[in-house]
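User: Modeling request: complex.
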Amino acid sequence: MTYIGNNALVRLSACILFACIFYACKKDNSMEEITPRLTNVKLPVASNFPAVDDDFDNPLSAEGIELGRRLFYDTKLSGNNRVSCASCHRQNIAFTDAVALTNIGVSARKLDRHTPSLFNLAWSKTGLFWDGGSTNLESQAFGPLTNPDEMNQNLTELEAELKQIPDYVKRFKVVFGEEIKSANIVKSLAQFQRTLISDNAKYDKYIRNEDGVILNDLELAGMKLVKEKCASCHSGALFTDNQYHNNGLDASFSDDHEGIFQGRFRVTFNPNDLGKFKTPSLRNVMVTAPYMHDGRFNTIDDVLDHYNSGIQASATLDQSLKQNAGNPGIPISSTEKLAIKSFLSALTDHTFINNKKFSNPN
Amino acid sequence: MKKFLTSLTLAIGLFSSCSKEGDLIATTDSQGKTTLTFDATFNGTDFALNKDFTLGTKTFNFNKFRYWVSNVILVNAAGEDVKVAGSYYLIEETGAINLVGVNNEVSTTIYPATKREDVSLKEIPAGDYKAIKFGVGVDQKYNDNLSLQSGELSQLNGMTNVSWMWLTSYIFTSATGTVKDGATSKTLKVETGLNSNYKTVSLSFPQTIKIGSSKSSSIVLNVDLAKAFNGVDIIATPSVGAAQATAMATVANNYATNVFSVKSVN
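Assistant: Request completed. Predicted assembly structure:
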């Protein structure tokens, strides 16, 4: 063996050494040796939608999504085993509940916030909850799970309870390669929720030139009006900027009740954020009444009337709401209102609210 | 060929040597461990639960003192940072706790009485060390995502903010009990949290310590809880939480700069 050859061998052995170290470490994380291979899932992104980032901390798998779906519909996730996520997030109305402030939680006390709809959450990277106090779907789930007025679930007890069910034990093992842990419960719930994509309304088919779908004149007029008057917040293909705005619901924001009325301020403590709440999407808006963070408006007419004539001025009022010669308000005539409502109806995604993939598996 | 076989053998040896977290740390006989102790005190007196402590005109009595220590770094003699992998530790002295935000009628929600002041720092490269750095609380990556796991991080020990429902994150520090000033008595609950309040403590050792496989070593820190309340009118603001942002920032700064000091190293 020549000197050069020997040197090459040393290099080769060094490579093997590093490969072994790498392999040894990787094995601990991926558990590929002891669990069946997972079916990787990429979120389907419509051509008129923005790109979506993969989530490296919680990669999607068909098995994880299915487990999440089962947990989402399972009342065992609540302290009294009577409330599931789906109790307040009902698919047929875009995963909201048609109640201003529900009291169907474990304590039967009325909540402080209106149940938000659930869809296109994979694009919602700027915080969850109406004031954005949760950075991702995984952490967010701990809120409703443990809140005494919502699911009132003791997490230790939940782990023990789910471990009694062989099907769950098996599924958690497959997806996460370990026993049931609360961290993995919220991970699978998050996986399922990221698949809740609403991108197939009449409007989408029109925009994508699909199936010869066209919008009628009234809908087209409404689309133009929404772009002119509403798109500063309800922007882009998602019909939300996923940001926080004061839309003039109230003139002052008391710090009563742990700052519940202060909106984004109680998360950032920035005085510029007083009274700001997250922009909900206009998609499916015609099936998600009542409206606003406290569900104060029963109908879409009430909402349009608010923007037309009900805006309350305050220091943090969004400037884009001053469309009335610099004064608060967005002038909307009664004919314009009809056109806007007609367009909003074209944003209802019947495919989404009827998709069996998102329904109760049982 | 001999070199090749030696390397291969070494590689096989390393195969099983990775830490459970999957960190690329190879174990050789050039590593050691050290014990890091957080010795709790109050204004010069040894800390204990249910004991009166005087500070000026005020009398404090505690039933709980807990905080997260994270991202421990030892600084070697050359001034290089040596990170301790997976270093998230819950330091605490507490009676049994009814965990907040969960169903208190169920016995499993009782966190048992615990006193924990010692942390074993393992797999430290052998050498001389001159300083220590650590975070008080949980850094943003883990604070923002309760489903990520490292070290002792857990959603099950009452140090997550289910009590501040709108912020799903960790409680960084918590000291609760009572405080009296003359005839006035208040329930004390001083907690910190929020990413902006995650602080790093840096402490230099009076002399360098040697860490190695053949020698046991220890770092003892003095933790003066009284200093956490510096600059806070604790009778006027006996409850510090997410809704008391200014007071919370003051307390967090106290933890960063006043509470911890080096007692001894050897």
